[in-house]
Amino acid sequence: MGFADALSKAGVRYLAASPETMLAPGVPSDVAHAIASHENDPKAMAKSVVNDVMRTKYDAGDLGGFGPAAAFDVLDLDPAKMRLAESSIKRLNDDVGAEAGANGVRGIVRDDARAIQGMVRFPDASKDMPWRADRPAIAFYDTLAGDGRLDARLRNDAGAAAVAVRHLVLAHRESDEFAPFGGADYSDAAGPTIHLPTTRYQIDPWASAGVVETKNAFYKDVDEDAMTGVLA
Asked: How many structural domains compose the chain?
């Protein structure tokens, strides 16, 4: 979400990307035709781009063929849609932070976040990879919205956040058994991710190398630190 927010504010209208699951050589050149053929129909363009990416198979010789991504989206970065998503996420974060000490909210929200894997789902991944805490935003908000242990206000907040983020997604496809990643399941990886660390170490594991995910405008604007304080 932070990357989408930054691009939107820079005037970029559409983002075609994989949520930390892309392999070299990446997006096939065929998508240029998909874009040119649907210049005046964003939804058709998005669907065509996603289909081209997810249908592509690269030849790895004796290792067989592989697709370039475990999941791929085209997002609409329309400023009005982004503002709605951000205001909805901020409301949820603020209310979760305010209720964290009551009715077991802290433990419930943390359980729900930990039930959703981050984007590091492949064998032999190192423990310090920052993407362990980058989880599918829609999946997280849907999980909170459906958790009957939370009160109606938090469930409604989460539902509104899920709807607002889902409205950013013009097209999406994913794999439930991505061979290059050891058959990892990315079936819940629809739409953008959001940084949801569930331990203190996951907050900014590469900070010493100058790589941080908590020092950006989106993180500040949506009060993501309130959610991080509950989860980690």
From this structure: 1
